[in-house]
Amino acid sequence: MYSILGFVSSIFVDTAFSWARMFIALGISVIISIAVGIWAATSRRAEAIILPIVDVLQTLPILAFFPVVIYVVVVTLPGYIGINAAVIFLIVTSMIWNIIFGVYESIKTLPSSFIEMSKIYGMGGFDRVTKIYIPASSSRIVGQSILSWSIGLFYLVTSEIFSTGSSIYSVKYGIGVALLNLGLSNNLFNYLIAILIFIGFVIATRFLFFMPLEKRFNFNSKGENKRGGFVNALINNPIPKAFKYVIESGARSIHVERRELLTNPVGSYREPRVQPSGVNRLRRLAGRYAYYSAVIIILAIALALLITEPTIRSYESLVLLSLAASFVRVWVAFLLVLAVSIFISIYIVFKSKSISKYMLLFQILSSIPATIILPLIIRGFIGFPYHAEAVAFVVFAISGIWYLIFSIIATGRALPAYINDIVKVFHVNKGDARSKIYIKALMPGIITGGITAIAAEWNASIVAEMFTTTAIGSGQVLTSVKIGIGKLLDVSLANGNVTLMVIALINLTVMIIIINKFLWRKAYKNTEKIYW
Description:
Elements: H1 2-42, H2 44-57, H3 66-76, H4 79-108, H5 112-120, H6 125-154, H7 156-160, E1 161-164, E2 167-170, H8 175-184, H9 188-217, H10 229-235, H11 241-263, H12 278-308, H13 310-351, H14 355-366, H15 370-381, H16 387-413, H17 418-425, H18 430-441, H19 443-464, E3 466-468, E4 477-480, H20 485-494, H21 498-530
Antiparallel strand pairs: 1-2, 3-4
């Protein structure tokens, strides 16, 4: 009896320490995201630089940040302080990117009258940030923070215990380390108890922290007489009364614009086009010339290295083979998960009357990371042919499915109610309704969810393709595919082969940029033509 109580108490302590690191990381992520998101939304130069960088960084595996953590944070800060700082930094690198995009999109969809009135009444930059930009983005920050929390939990194990070469770094108290050790032991009872405690913390965080924040800062898109958190936050600030009237009158337009943005993320918001002056045209031409010149120079240097350096050439061949293997795994998992997500989302959006209950269930399930139950998944597939490939597929699927489901359902909830009426009035059969009406109406959410799901799967490759007892490094290998970019990154970091790791990350980044440019952007443009 006492041993069980002692075990439960230790798991509570471990989880409490992990949650403290998660909250610190979330707070840091929100603060940085507000600053970067506002800067990108209010400065075209910053926008042109920040958005592409963030778009690439959110897709790169968290492993890309390990060298920085190991050689800067851990070495600079002494002992246990440095290890905890490193863990928090790694969690931040998984949380921050989508919050930045949330802040950016919120400010870009603000009615121009708000900014014009702030200038008329002489509001300075600080007042504009605290009384307009932050309240305007508060709802999106909360929504994106819920998703970031789930992402951070996925990398909890990888963050709380990591290694490079012969050096292993681990926190003293942490649920990620505790669950990994329990999963490797033969005590299945204690392992399941620890998972249940972890799930209890997930549910408690949802109800006691995120749900009150949602109620405080959420917009009410249906009740036009009810003010959202943004409008209340603005009106309660000590600003001129005339400006308050502008805020109140602009509330409805905000709801409309944001609803349109969900329905059509690309086509709904249009900035007024201003014909560039001769100077601006020259600047744009110079910028393009500099961009293409830099690309040509980089390609020339890379080609020269490939020709003259046999080691680089052999590394490049290995990286391309690994990248191709991972590409197949990621996209097979994505296509199967996409089909399941569309089926589930169509039912929930157009057939079910309990969307909020489903969403609550999904938010809880999405907060249970695959890495926590990975030892159980590995045990379940032991003895099966190609068990490592099966484990990788399950991790990829769990990593991507929630992004698709949440994005598609968000788009569906913003659609007009008469879509179902059209199906009933014209007696459209189920097959035609699904392919010609429902899927096309949900296409913006499918594409947006697809981009984030693919990014999540590439991030998960470092865990899906190779998982060891030290999470990353030279411990006992629990699961490992024969070849893959995630495994290659794991091995290169564990062996201290920074050159191979950098080449792998460069190739992965180039592939991400090409796919984003030629697939997802084109898909967004085609979406504008197929509906509404």
